[in-house]
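Weekly structure sync, notes
Attendees: PL (lead), two postdocs, one rotation student
Agenda item 3: pending single-chain targets
PL asked that the sequence for the first pending target be pasted directly into the notes so everyone works from the same version. It is reproduced below exactly as submitted, 557 residues in total.
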Amino acid sequence: MIHRLVFLLAMIPAGYVSAQVGQPQTGGPGEIVLLKRADKLEGMQSGAEEVRKLTGNVLLQQKGVLMYCNLAIQNLTTNVIEAYGNVRIVQGDTLSVKGDTMFYYGATRQANVRGRSVVLKDRKMTLTTRRLDYDLASGIAHYPDRGRIVDRENILTSREGYYDTRTKLFTFRENVRLVNPKYTMTADSLLYNSFSKIATFQGPTRIVSKDGTLIAREGEYNTVSRLSNFNRRATIETESYTLTGDTLLGNNASDFYTARGNVVLFAKKDRTTLLGDFGRYNRKAGVARMTGHAVVKSLVSNDTLFMRADTLWSFEFQNSNKPKGELQRRLIGQKNVLVYKNDLQSKCDSIVYETADSTIFFFKDPVVWSTNYQMEADSMTAKMKNNRIHTMFLRSRSFVISQDTVQNYNQVKGRVLTAYFAYDKKQDRSDIDHVVVEGNGESIYFAVDDKNKLVGMNRVLCSKMTIRFADRKVKKISFYGQPDSKLIPPQELKGSDKQLEGFNWRQAERPTKARVLGQPEMKAPEKPTAASGNSIKINASAKPLGVKEVLIDKKQK
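Predicted structure, written out during the meeting:
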């Protein structure tokens, strides 16, 4: 009987079948569903509607789309088809849909497929869900229940999603999760192009890999090349650092990132922070570059060194003298450098800070202030100990100035000058302990009595000298060689006598913490902090040939 039905169907002219199926439609021939094959056909009457039942190896066609099933109920009046058992939609040689049941609306070309496992496949990916609504006219497939998409590189899941079969673009909503062998991405919503492999997202998004975590609210991510472009304040966080910017471009494959707008790079191990308008970070090389209001904060113990420059560099490297895996950091500032630390401030053209041994190198017209001292030279080096200034090395045209309580300027200059500092626990400060001057040494010190009345000015020229201090007061001066020394009484002092050649008091340029950070600062009247002057007498005790000392005794007039 079934074979006879198939034979009879085959004998029906194609135009007749088309006319019967398309008769109820008003949308024109383009929307007619053709019956291509069935093992059995039964006519059914349901009120005014004409319905037929198709059983066994059913094949229907509309335009270029083929529909297969075991059983179909075809309403010729409404042009609606109910399909059951091994439902399959084939669109050309690129796309297919499989399910247990289907409702197909011929007028709108809408297929609603249901089943335990509804599968949509094309050449690039496979979508699995329980419910799929596929609009063949627009090429949009929608799954209102949880769906799972698998392609060559990724597995994506979400509570709801859309797939444009023409543009290969997925739209995922709620509980979106993309799993790649190298990382996992979670988001509230996500656009994913299965052809270009680019994920575009809006809303909180997190990408986690063995190298770290990326957090953003808007942007694009290439799941193959791992190139990223993030907006609306994005952050990359690893075990050792975090990088944040208003926009963030990155290459996760090469670990190279570029950030713009309120950039913050924080190194966790040594608690160093770089700030700026534009930053670049090469994680594999351990190199960071910051420009535009660039500032670095380096925290050691309980004190923080703040440094500002037109360009800031940070280099991470392995120190051969340290255990393997323990990285050291070198900070470099270029152009218009300002430094602020509790016991040290500086202004120069370029600077190098070696955090491993707490050494700071100052270059090109550097000036350094510490407590009540101003130091200048062609180049300078500061050695820190226990996070406090310990030694200052001044090379070529060295000049040290301090201002006393009566506004006189004590001065020392020479070719090479080394200043040694000592920490005063009671005062919680580092003061100069002694200064060694080598080559073309010159000094000016003003002597005052107990009432701060000027006694005179001592001026010394000597190739080498050592000046020792106590409680910020000059205690002893040792001369090596033949010094040229004289004490000038107050009444004989002239303006030109009070300054050594090259004198330049630059207190107005002294950086404050607010100035380094680019913040408004409160102007306060300058308070002199230098020790009061002293009177002078010559110590007659025996010393090695060529060495003389001047003792400073405030009781002697």
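Discussion points:
- Residues 368-557 form a domain with the lipopolysaccharide transport protein A fold fold (CATH 2.60.450.10).
- The longest helix spans residues 2-11.
Action: rotation student to compare against the earlier draft before next sync.
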